[in-house]
Write a structure and sequence with these properties.
2 domains, 26% strand, 17 strands, Quinone Oxidoreductase, Chain A, domain 1, 339 residues, globular, 6-stranded parallel sheet, Rossmann fold
Length: 339
């Protein structure tokens, strides 16, 4: 089959469109013909060596496609089924897996990082991890797992965001950023979007953000205080990491919670511990999603309630260019690779 692989870590230039061995199936597995695969920032980190991956390696955690074949005895899916792949890797035996908390597995990993992903014509996956997408198109489906699944897990499953809440969303032009706006609004919350780009803030407003703050031009904490009548936000959705943790916590009202699930700006942060305990703040980590989260966002997307924004569709052999575009930080929505 054709695939995009890299044989050693490096910049976008290490990505090579080449022949790769066809996946061979084992018990309980299915072969999926990839119809669309999303490009995510974790692909860049894995390619650059920030996360270790077996080499040569195929990236790609957001995979939608059609079941091409199944191993004898598989009953969960059939040839021809349209599916997306649950992107969390788990061993199925640990305490957390036994309780269906697969994203807490003691040996948890992510498709496209710990194992080969969807930058290829075909991918093998456990049949139990394939979710039928029904009538939903493959491109929309491939925009859901990492962005909307992760965001639903953080905002709905972990933080319990609902009516009356005000959610601070960083980087609204990113995949998880715009997903956070859509999901927060669906859950009944108001949204404050913050970015250093007026263009991305305008994009956030078109998605339903109630307020937009350019943190380069205004003091974010002061402006949030004004907009919330001195209370602060009830939740802060922070995928940036080290550089923004302090401000996210400073923007929270008493009893507020910060959802942390990324470290774009680094893994180390200085925080005011006193503020955390005095104000009874919650710091909630969110990794990947539960299968139930993925089923939920798939259902909402099928009804047209959640609407992934596709920024660019590119042929698989243009993966190198796709990475360059994503690194430019000028993306508003999802980049998809089409084999």
């Amino acid at each position: 089959m054709k695939a995009v692989r890299f044989h050693s870590p490096g910049g976008p230039e290490v990505l090579s469109y080449e022949d790769a061995p066809n996946p061979s199936l084992g018990p309980g597995e299915a072969l999926v013909k990839v119809k669309a695969c999303g490009v995510n920032r974790i692909d860049i980190w894995t390619r650059s060596g920030r996360y270790a991956a077996p080499l040569p390696h195929i990236l790609g955690a957001d995979v939608a496609g059609e079941v091409a074949s199944v191993y004898p005895g598989v009953t969960e899916v059939r040839k021809g089924d349209p599916v997306i792949v649950y992107p969390v890797l788990y061993d199925g035996t640990c305490h957390f897996c036994q309780n269906k908390q697969f994203n807490r597995c003691v040996r948890v990993g992510l498709l496209g990082t710990a194992s080969d992903g969807g930058y290829a014509e075909f991918i093998r996956a456990p049949a139990a991890d394939l979710v039928n997408i029904g009538e939903l198109d493959f491109k929309t489906a491939a925009s859901l797992p990492v962005n909307f699944g992760t965001t639903w897990n953080g905002l709905a499953s972990r933080a319990g965001v609902g009516p009356g809440d005000i959610v601070l969303v960083w980087a609204p032009g990113s995949g998880v950023g715009y997903a956070a706006i859509e999901i927060s609004k669906f859950l009944g919350a108001r949204v404050i979007a913050t970015s250093s780009s007026d263009e991305k803030l305008q994009f956030a407003k078109t998605l339903g953000a109630d307020f937009a703050i350019n943190y380069k031009e205004e003091d974010l904490v002061e402006r949030v205080s004004v907009l919330t009548e001195g209370l602060g936000v009830s939740a802060a959705f922070d995928q940036i990491g080290g550089e923004t943790w302090g401000k996210s916590l400073a923007c929270l009202r008493k009893g507020g919670r910060m959802i942390s699930f990324g470290l774009t700006s680094g893994a180390t942060a200085e925080i005011d511990v006193g503020r955390v305990y005095r104000n009874e703040l919650g710091i909630l980590g969110s990794f990947g999603c539960l299968k139930e989260d993925l089923v939920q966002v798939l259902s909402l997307a099928s009804k047209g309630i959640l609407k992934p924004r596709i920024f660019r569709e590119m042929p698989l052999q243009s993966a190198r260019e796709a990475h360059e575009i994503l690194q430019s930080r000028k993306v508003q929505g999802k980049i998809l690779l089409i084999p």
